Amino acid sequence: MNSSRLLMRLRLTRAGLIVGLMSCMTLGFGQTEIPKAINELLTKHTCYTCHKLDLKLIGPSWTAISAKGLKKAEFVQSVYTPDANKWPGYPPMMPMPQVPKKDLEKIADWVLKIKPVASK
Protein backbone atom coordinates (compact mmCIF):
# COMPACT_ATOMS: atom_id res chain seq x y z
CA MET A 1 0.00 0.00 0.00
CA ASN A 2 1.45 3.35 -0.94
CA SER A 3 1.92 6.13 1.58
CA SER A 4 -0.88 8.36 0.26
CA ARG A 5 -3.46 5.53 0.66
CA LEU A 6 -2.18 4.80 4.14
CA LEU A 7 -2.40 8.48 5.10
CA MET A 8 -5.97 8.62 3.76
CA ARG A 9 -6.95 5.57 5.85
CA LEU A 10 -5.44 7.14 8.96
CA ARG A 11 -7.39 10.35 8.37
CA LEU A 12 -10.64 8.46 7.84
CA THR A 13 -10.04 6.40 10.98
CA ARG A 14 -9.34 9.54 13.01
CA ALA A 15 -12.49 11.21 11.62
CA GLY A 16 -14.53 8.13 12.51
CA LEU A 17 -13.24 8.17 16.07
CA ILE A 18 -14.09 11.84 16.46
CA VAL A 19 -17.62 11.31 15.13
CA GLY A 20 -18.04 8.30 17.42
CA LEU A 21 -16.95 10.24 20.48
CA MET A 22 -19.22 13.14 19.60
CA SER A 23 -22.16 10.77 19.20
CA CYS A 24 -21.76 9.77 22.84
CA MET A 25 -23.12 13.20 23.70
CA THR A 26 -26.51 12.65 22.02
CA LEU A 27 -29.69 12.20 24.02
CA GLY A 28 -32.82 10.21 23.38
CA PHE A 29 -35.26 13.10 23.69
CA GLY A 30 -34.25 15.24 20.76
CA GLN A 31 -31.28 17.01 22.33
CA THR A 32 -28.03 16.67 20.48
CA GLU A 33 -25.81 17.75 23.34
CA ILE A 34 -25.78 18.21 27.07
CA PRO A 35 -26.91 21.76 27.90
CA LYS A 36 -23.95 24.06 28.51
CA ALA A 37 -24.95 24.96 32.08
CA ILE A 38 -25.37 21.28 33.00
CA ASN A 39 -22.13 20.32 31.27
CA GLU A 40 -20.32 22.98 33.31
CA LEU A 41 -21.78 21.59 36.57
CA LEU A 42 -20.94 17.99 35.63
CA THR A 43 -17.39 19.07 34.84
CA LYS A 44 -16.98 21.30 37.90
CA HIS A 45 -18.12 18.57 40.29
CA THR A 46 -16.10 15.81 38.54
CA CYS A 47 -19.21 13.78 37.67
CA TYR A 48 -17.70 12.76 34.32
CA THR A 49 -15.00 10.82 36.14
CA CYS A 50 -17.50 8.04 36.84
CA HIS A 51 -20.61 8.77 34.76
CA LYS A 52 -21.28 9.17 31.03
CA LEU A 53 -24.51 9.73 29.14
CA ASP A 54 -25.16 6.28 27.66
CA LEU A 55 -22.10 4.30 28.72
CA LYS A 56 -21.50 2.24 31.84
CA LEU A 57 -18.24 3.52 33.26
CA ILE A 58 -17.24 3.30 36.92
CA GLY A 59 -20.80 4.30 37.80
CA PRO A 60 -24.08 3.94 35.92
CA SER A 61 -24.84 6.10 32.90
CA TRP A 62 -27.06 9.16 33.21
CA THR A 63 -29.63 7.24 31.14
CA ALA A 64 -29.57 4.31 33.60
CA ILE A 65 -29.92 6.68 36.54
CA SER A 66 -32.91 8.33 34.90
CA ALA A 67 -34.49 4.93 34.26
CA LYS A 68 -34.54 4.26 38.03
CA GLY A 69 -37.45 6.70 38.31
CA LEU A 70 -35.98 8.64 41.22
CA LYS A 71 -37.55 11.81 42.53
CA LYS A 72 -35.34 14.91 42.66
CA ALA A 73 -34.90 14.65 46.46
CA GLU A 74 -33.87 10.98 46.12
CA PHE A 75 -31.30 11.88 43.48
CA VAL A 76 -29.81 14.61 45.67
CA GLN A 77 -29.75 12.35 48.73
CA SER A 78 -28.10 9.56 46.74
CA VAL A 79 -25.16 11.87 45.98
CA TYR A 80 -24.77 12.92 49.60
CA THR A 81 -25.23 9.42 51.06
CA PRO A 82 -24.88 6.82 48.30
CA ASP A 83 -26.40 3.37 48.83
CA ALA A 84 -24.36 0.71 47.00
CA ASN A 85 -27.24 -1.78 47.41
CA LYS A 86 -29.31 0.25 44.94
CA TRP A 87 -26.65 -0.15 42.24
CA PRO A 88 -25.48 -3.78 42.12
CA GLY A 89 -22.55 -4.37 39.81
CA TYR A 90 -20.97 -0.99 40.52
CA PRO A 91 -18.37 -0.02 43.11
CA PRO A 92 -19.74 2.10 45.97
CA MET A 93 -19.91 5.80 45.19
CA MET A 94 -17.99 8.11 47.46
CA PRO A 95 -20.26 10.63 49.24
CA MET A 96 -20.08 14.07 47.65
CA PRO A 97 -21.13 16.49 50.45
CA GLN A 98 -19.14 19.33 48.87
CA VAL A 99 -21.58 19.64 45.93
CA PRO A 100 -24.09 22.42 46.64
CA LYS A 101 -27.71 21.25 46.82
CA LYS A 102 -28.70 23.94 44.30
CA ASP A 103 -26.25 22.46 41.75
CA LEU A 104 -27.45 18.90 42.41
CA GLU A 105 -31.05 19.95 41.90
CA LYS A 106 -30.17 21.48 38.52
CA ILE A 107 -28.34 18.30 37.52
CA ALA A 108 -31.27 16.19 38.77
CA ASP A 109 -33.76 18.24 36.75
CA TRP A 110 -31.80 17.37 33.62
CA VAL A 111 -30.85 13.75 34.42
CA LEU A 112 -34.34 12.70 35.46
CA LYS A 113 -35.79 13.87 32.11
CA ILE A 114 -33.46 11.72 30.01
CA LYS A 115 -35.27 9.02 28.08
CA PRO A 116 -33.44 6.00 26.64
CA VAL A 117 -33.02 5.95 22.89
CA ALA A 118 -35.58 3.57 21.42
CA SER A 119 -33.96 0.63 19.65
CA LYS A 120 -34.75 0.25 15.98
What do you see in this structure?
The protein is mainly alpha-helical. 47% of the residues lie in helices and 0% in strands. It has a single domain, classed as Cytochrome c-like domain (Cytochrome Bc1 Complex, Chain D, domain 2, Orthogonal Bundle), CATH 1.10.760.10. The chain has helices spanning 3-23, 36-44, 62-67, 72-80, 101-111. It is globular and about 60 Å long.
Would you kindly provide a brief summary of this structure?
The protein has 5 helices and no strands. The protein is mostly helical. The protein has one domain: Orthogonal Bundle (Cytochrome Bc1 Complex, Chain D, domain 2), CATH 1.10.760.10.
Write the SSE topology:
Layout: H1 3-23, H2 36-44, H3 62-67, H4 72-80, H5 101-111
What characteristics describe this protein?
mainly alpha, 120 residues, globular, 47% helix, Cytochrome Bc1 Complex, Chain D, domain 2
Q: Regions with pLDDT < 50 over 5+ consecutive residues?
A: 15-32
Oligomeric state of shown chains: single chain
CATH fold description = Cytochrome Bc1 Complex, Chain D, domain 2
Name the overall outline: globular
Derived from helix and strand composition plus strand pairing, the structural class reads: mainly alpha
Give me the count of strands. 0
